[in-house]
Amino acid sequence: MLIGAIATASSVAALFFLRFWRSSGDRFFLFFALSFFIDAVNRVALAGRAVNNDGQPEYYLIRLLSYGLIVYAILDKNRRRK
């Protein structure tokens, strides 16, 4: 049940960032929306498994991709400012 709540929260966050991206056109918000969308899909995939074992490497690699997008968005935003 908690995985579903986290997936829902990630989906809502993705929709908020997508709305901010559409109104501003700043790709910083697009990267954040993609990151939260990937996280939501990952959580739904984890919940859909018969055995909820999030110790599998593929779940961590997907989370690494998601968090890497956030780091890239921050670095990209700071690099473009200078």
TrEMBL record:
The chain crosses the membrane at residues 6-21, 28-47, 59-75. It holds the Pfam family DUF5985. Keywords: Membrane, Transmembrane, Transmembrane helix. This is Uncharacterized protein. The lineage of its organism: Bacteria, Pseudomonadati, Pseudomonadota, Betaproteobacteria, Burkholderiales.
